[in-house]
């Protein structure tokens, strides 16, 4: 089994997709899939939205890693919300031995100022914090402590799952060195960016893309697969979320095969005691045509997704919405479909 990346480090799974397609839900489900296999997983969000805590129904996440779920065989999901300001303070402590002065800068608003004027720096800091979690070993003292390269010990996490920015921004987010070009040519920020870049471009990292079977999300998915692939990132699975169940599709297939004839429809309805007006029948025929069109669109979108040449996983639309139970259900579904993690 190839569990660890080929360079011996745990896997970093980056989950992106058009906004609202289910990135947070799928990231949580991937983490749960791993935990169900007995792994120790860190689930990370970077956008300060508290999406993970809402999906898993736990207290709002902080900048300290906390355990949020346990798998049946001793697997664990830990979670973390990376906040750029805190990451910068940690960073200043580490490299400039600023100590409490960093906190003072925070209170003065200087950190917010620095991370706002230089979004590239913000992404390097967030990337650096993720790097730390991927590389840290059980022999290290914790976040922001010594890096664990030579310290022995097991990796602190078997895998890290990142609920990443949406497709529209993820390219910039992952291009940590490109964004810094003019800002920091040398120095510790630059070194950090290079280390993060090395991790993102190694066999450790895979990017999964979440989509719905709709035109725009699929277009963004294909653009992301090509764009990120061209940037040298490894693309994992394309995950079609909120798919309609097969029986709904089959019903539409039957209607399409029967070619809806208004007169036939009216007489059939009459045999079961339903009296119709021509307007009603027109409405029904119109609805049937729309359903057929939507099915045809979905079939062509599925074809376009398949042509991207990546493994495709499909998750059902859960009418009761998403909570902790649903996350485990979706995780079981990912495992059943043989998700490669
Ligand atoms: N498989 C699903 N079935 C039903 N509702 C879902 C499913 N996946 C996501 N949702 C719902 O869709 C909305 C967007 O999901 P979310 O994971 O927050 O997306 P994103 O992080 O991409 O914005 C949320 O309300 C979520 O509960
Ligand atoms: Mg989200």
UniProtKB/TrEMBL annotation:
Q: Name one Pfam family in it.
A: ArsA_ATPase
Which ranges carry the ArsA/GET3 Anion-transporting ATPase-like domain?
A: 14-180
Q: Which GO terms describe its molecular function?
A: ATP binding; ATP hydrolysis activity
Concerning Gene3D superfamilies, the annotation shows:
P-loop containing nucleotide triphosphate hydrolases
What protein does this entry describe? AAA family ATPase
Source taxonomy:
Bacteria, Bacillati, Actinomycetota, Actinomycetes, Micrococcales
């Amino acid at each position: 089994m190839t569990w660890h990346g080929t360079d011996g480090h745990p896997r970093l799974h980056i989950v992106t997709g058009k906004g609202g397609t289910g990135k947070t839900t799928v990231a949580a489900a991937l983490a749960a899939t791993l935990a169900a296999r007995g792994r120790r997983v860190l689930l990370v969000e970077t956008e300060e939205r508290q999406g993970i805590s809402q999906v898993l129904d736990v207290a709002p996440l902080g900048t300290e890693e906390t355990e949020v779920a346990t798998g049946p065989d001793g697997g664990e999901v830990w979670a973390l919300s990376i906040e750029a300001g805190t990451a910068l303070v940690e960073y200043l402590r580490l490299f400039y031995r600023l100590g409490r002065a960093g906190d003072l800068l925070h209170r003065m608003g200087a950190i917010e100022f620095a991370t706002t004027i230089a979004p590239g720096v913000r992404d390097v800091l967030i990337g650096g914090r993720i790097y730390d979690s991927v590389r840290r070993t059980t022999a290290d003292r914790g976040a922001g402590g010594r890096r664990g390269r030579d310290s022995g010990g097991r990796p602190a996490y078997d895998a890290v799952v990142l609920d990443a920015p949406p497709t529209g921004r993820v390219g910039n987010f992952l291009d940590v060195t490109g964004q810094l070009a003019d800002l920091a040519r040398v120095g510790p920020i630059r070194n950090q960016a290079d280390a993060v870049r090395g991790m993102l471009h190694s066999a450790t990292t895979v990017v999964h893309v979440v989509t719905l079977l709709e035109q725009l999300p699929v277009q963004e998915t294909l653009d992301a697969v090509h764009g990120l692939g061209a940037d040298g990132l490894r693309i994992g699975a394309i995950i079609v979320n909120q798919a309609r169940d097969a029986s709904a599709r089959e019903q539409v297939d039957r209607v399409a095969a029967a070619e809806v004839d208004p007169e036939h429809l009216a007489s059939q309805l009459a045999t079961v005691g339903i009296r119709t007006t021509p307007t009603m029948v027109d409405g029904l025929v119109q609805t049937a045509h729309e359903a057929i069109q939507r099915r045809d669109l979905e079939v062509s979108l599925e074809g376009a997704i398949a042509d991207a040449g990546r493994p495709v996983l499909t998750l059902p639309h859960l009418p009761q919405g998403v909570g902790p139970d649903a996350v485990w259900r979706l995780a079981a579904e990912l495992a059943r479909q043989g998700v490669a993690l």
